[in-house]
């Protein structure tokens, strides 16, 4: 048992002051990831600040047709919301595929976005890991890397981000609300929230000490959009994505985000540009998706993920391709 202090934040300012004031302090939401990592000895915070009772658990339907989901909203409640189920189907499919009902009932939205990688070397404190112990090396590159990243990685880290929900939010162009330590609020597009590993893989987001995710803004889905989230995993029961795709398509617009391939939700911007406003054949979808991996850095045991992603995007297009896009 490792001793740590616990504090329940009375208000947002109190929470930020507590966390920013100590280098080894962390926020606690639902605890479904944090507590596991504390048990493994991966994280050893001296202070745990409980923010689960702060007033950020609302789901607000906005006049413009968008939705604001509070950072403390539990996954179970999000998954039951009728408007979200009707207007943002890819989000709900991602949420339901990412965890059991019991975990969804406990986990918070902000905690989901900030969960740590499931790379086995990050979770094993007996082996080197640059993300856990800066400068120690990456055991995954010469080791078991089948489930790890093929794009956006570096010579220092090939870990993937585990969130299904973040992938769907990326396809919906969601924006993250962040409360700074000084009380100011900033909006961060979800694609800009995460940092690529480069030579500092232990710095995973643009958040600063004391920053608190208070909510996520979902803009109204495009008119006439069809959307889905599809996930390939090693077993049907609860498992992290080998590759997943969130797609939001209209006759004129294509939005695609992948999970399981990178350290962050990976938008296929090159593919989107090639396919927008067209009625592509299966071969054209495959070629456009493959082109997005021009800068990929696959390792021997995970190179298959590129063709798997190509197959997955092609399958989604066959299911969702809008009628009337026309060439």
Automatic annotation (TrEMBL):
Keywords: Oxidoreductase. It comes from the Bacteria. PROSITE patterns: FAD_PCMH (PS51387). InterPro entries: CO_DH_flav_C, CO_DH_flav_C_dom_sf, Diverse_Substr_Oxidored, FAD-bd_PCMH, FAD-bd_PCMH-like_sf, FAD-bd_PCMH_sub1, FAD-bd_PCMH_sub2, Mopterin_DH_FAD-bd. SUPFAM superfamilies: CO dehydrogenase flavoprotein C-terminal domain-like, FAD-binding/transporter-associated domain-like. Signal peptide: none annotated. Residues 1-223 form the FAD-binding PCMH-type domain. GO terms for molecular function: FAD binding; oxidoreductase activity. PANTHER family: OXIDOREDUCTASE, XANTHINE DEHYDROGENASE SUBUNIT C-RELATED. This is Xanthine dehydrogenase YagS FAD-binding subunit.
């Amino acid at each position: 048992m490792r001793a740590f202090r616990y504090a329940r934040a009375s208000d947002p300012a109190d929470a930020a002051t507590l966390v920013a004031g100590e280098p080894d302090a962390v926020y606690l939401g639902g605890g479904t990831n944090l507590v596991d990592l504390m048990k493994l000895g991966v994280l050893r915070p001296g202070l745990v600040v409980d923010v689960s009772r702060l007033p950020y658990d609302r789901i607000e339907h906005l006049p413009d047709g968008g939705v604001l989901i509070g950072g403390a909203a539990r996954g179970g409640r999000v998954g039951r919301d009728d408007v979200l189920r009707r207007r943002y189907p890819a989000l709900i499919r991602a949420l339901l595929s990412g965890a059991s009902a019991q975990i969804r009932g406990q986990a918070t939205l902000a905690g989901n976005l900030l969960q740590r990688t499931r790379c086995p070397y990050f979770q094993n404190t007996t082996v080197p890991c640059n993300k856990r112990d800066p400068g120690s090396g990456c055991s995954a590159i010469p080791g078991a890397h089948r489930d790890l990243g093929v794009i956006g990685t570096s010579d220092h880290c090939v870990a993937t981000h585990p969130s299904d929900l973040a992938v769907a939010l990326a396809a919906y162009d969601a924006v993250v609300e962040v409360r700074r330590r000084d009380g100011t609020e900033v909006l961060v597009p979800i694609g800009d929230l995460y940092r690529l590993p480069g030579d500092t893989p232990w710095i995973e987001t643009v958040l600063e000490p004391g920053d608190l995710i208070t909510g996520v803004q979902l803009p109204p889905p495009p008119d006439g959009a069809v959307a889905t989230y599809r996930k390939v995993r090693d077993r049907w029961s609860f498992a992290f994505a080998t590759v997943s795709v969130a797609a939001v398509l209209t006759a004129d617009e294509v939005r695609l985000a992948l999970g399981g391939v990178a350290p962050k939700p990976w938008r296929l911007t090159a593919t989107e540009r090639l396919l927008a406003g067209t009625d592509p054949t299966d071969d054209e979808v495959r070629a456009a998706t493959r082109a997005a991996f021009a800068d990929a850095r696959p390792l021997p045991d995970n190179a298959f993920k590129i063709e798997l992603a190509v197959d997955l995007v092609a399958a989604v297009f066959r299911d969702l391709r809008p009628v009337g896009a026309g060439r």
